[in-house]
Specification:
CATH class of the largest domain: Alpha Beta
Pathway: Amino-acid biosynthesis; L-leucine biosynthesis; L-leucine from 3-methyl-2-oxobutanoate: step 3/4
CATH architecture of the largest domain: 3-Layer(aba) Sandwich
Strand content: 15-25%
Keywords: Amino-acid biosynthesis, Branched-chain amino acid biosynthesis, Cytoplasm, Leucine biosynthesis, Magnesium, Manganese, Metal-binding, NAD, Oxidoreductase
CATH superfamily of the largest domain: Isopropylmalate Dehydrogenase
Helix content: 25-40%
Subunit structure: Homodimer.
Bound molecules: adenosine-5'-triphosphate, magnesium ion
EC number: 1.1.1.85
Function: Catalyzes the oxidation of 3-carboxy-2-hydroxy-4-methylpentanoate (3-isopropylmalate) to 3-carboxy-4-methyl-2-oxopentanoate. The product decarboxylates to 4-methyl-2 oxopentanoate.
CATH topology of the largest domain: Isopropylmalate Dehydrogenase
Number of helices: 12
Radius of gyration: 21 Å
Number of strands: 12
Number of domains: 2
Length: 363
């Protein structure tokens, strides 16, 4: 059997810096655990524009379609702000998501014990927190037609349409149930069925899909009440599934329960491939952070945790993912901090590569 394949797209800004640390981790798994990956690397975003005049070359797109998992750093930066919309770095990312049809966006909110004091919330609210928000990514109000700004009488009207087909709801629901099966078997679906037709259909379809997953305990919540519960007592949840708009808001709110942007990974999954695993792209939630790019200050943990998600969801190496996450917790417990995680006085921050090295030692 051939080795599992990964396409690395470091991108722009701090993307290449944090990805260099993931490279160390991949090498460690090869050397010490004899887990080999076929790793290839290519350009995306501004870096691809500089080389090819397009934020994503067709060859790169074809490679992304062929591998088991794509690992992406970040795209964009002030240098590219002047570019035409059609070749902006972000378009490269959007093309990947669209052509790979990555409809299910997984955003964990996980609190490492060592950082429980760092959150803006009370320690007992976040300590040990480990939840996952599944956001529908390719449909809903951001894409529905009709849309636009039209003239009506003597004023303008801004129009967007929330639209979900049964099959769109079903496939993201299924991916959330599959995830719940591998976790605590608890799924909460959030919509606004009280005021939205798409919410009524959402609730119906999710309930129907639940019949295939009798072991999973399903609940429903209105998204506004869900937002409140998420802040009040987030540990009541395991997996949350919701639409594109609500997921955008809820996953950002949930993310802030846990501290720094430099700690947050994500996965975007599509339909199952021949090997049964979903098409997948993994990336840190943060952007290219132009304000600190090139200074060796970036926290590589979000990107390394994104690789841990790849181990778990694309390569069926859940134990190895846990090993990596524990190593990160060990490092944090020892007080090793990049600049974004500094809270206490008297701690000298480590560099991006200093953090990567410490994680390798802990592994
Ligand atoms: P984008 O439009 O690409 O999302 P953004 O400006 O919205 O970019 P980021 O690029 O993520 O967001 O940066 C937001 C802030 O967080 C910046 O001050 C940046 O330095 C900081 N930041 C982001 N990622 C990291 C990281 N990995 N380590 C340390 N600081 C980070
Ligand atoms: Mg941003």
């Amino acid at each position: 059997m051939s080795n599992p394949s990964i396409l690395i797209l470091p991108g722009d800004g701090i993307g290449p810096e944090v990805m260099a640390e993931v490279r160390k981790v991949i090498t460690w798994f090869g050397d010490k655990r004899d887990i080999q990956f076929d790793v290839s690397e290519d350009l995306v975003g501004g870096a691809a524009y500089d080389a090819h005049g397009t934020p994503l070359h067709d060859d790169t797109m074809a490679k992304a379609q062929a591998v088991d998992a794509v690992l992406l750093g970040a795209v964009g930066g002030p240098k590219y702000d002047v570019l035409d919309f059609s070749v902006k770095p972000e378009r490269g990312l959007l093309r990947l998501r669209k052509e790979m049809d990555l409809f299910s966006n997984l955003r964990p909110a996980q609190c490492f014990d060592a950082l429980a004091d760092f959150s803006s919330l009370k320690k007992d609210v976040v300590a040990g927190l480990d939840i996952m928000i599944v956001r529908e990514l390719t449909s809903g109000i951001y894409f529905g037609e009709p849309r636009g700004i039209i003239e009506e009488g003597n004023e303008r009207v801004g129009i967007n349409t929330q639209r979900y087909t049964e099959s769109e709801i079903e496939r993201v629901a299924r991916s959330a149930f599959e995830l719940a099966m591998r976790r605590d078997k608890k799924l909460c679906s959030m919509e606004k069925a009280n005021v939205m037709e798409s919410g009524i259909l959402w609730r119906e379809v999710v309930t129907e899909v639940s019949k295939d997953y009798p072991e999973v305990e399903l609940s429903h919540m209105y998204a506004d009440a869900g937002a409140m519960q998420l802040c009040r007592w987030p540990k009541q949840f395991d997996v949350i599934v919701t639409d594109n708009l609500f997921g955008d808001l809820l996953s950002d709110a949930a993310a802030m329960l846990t501290g720094s942007l430099g700690m947050l990974p994500s996965a975007s999954l599509g339909a199952p491939m021949d090997n049964g695993r979903p098409k997948a792209m993994y990336e840190p939630v943060h952007g290219s952070a132009p304000d600190i790019a090139g200074e060796g200050k970036a926290n590589p943990i979000a990107c390394i945790l994104s690789f841990a998600m790849a181990l778990r969801y694309s390569f069926d190496l859940g134990d190895e993912a846990t090993r990596l996450e524990s190593a990160i917790n060990t490092v944090l417990e020892k007080g090793v901090r990049t600049a974004d995680l500094l809270g206490e006085e008297g701690v000298t921050p480590v560099s991006t590569s200093g953090m990567g090295d410490a994680i390798i030692v802990a592994l």
